[in-house]
């Protein structure tokens, strides 16, 4: 898990399995590394930290609520 406030993430020297990128105050976009460039594929956007924890507990598969957020 990597948490960043920067979409470029220059400080991470390796690819993380999951990344949370701060997208607004107390909101995060969750990415899962899948071979795509950058952080990988976005699996949910505009999550609270609790919603992100729930998504990670489910294996970072988005629920409809995550997609609608």
UniProtKB/TrEMBL annotation:
Keywords: 4Fe-4S, Iron, Iron-sulfur, Metal-binding. One of its GO terms (molecular function) is metal ion binding. The keyword Iron-sulfur applies. It comes from the Bacteria. This is Precorrin-3B synthase. It comes from Burkholderia pseudomallei 1710a. The lineage of its organism: Bacteria, Pseudomonadati, Pseudomonadota, Betaproteobacteria, Burkholderiales.
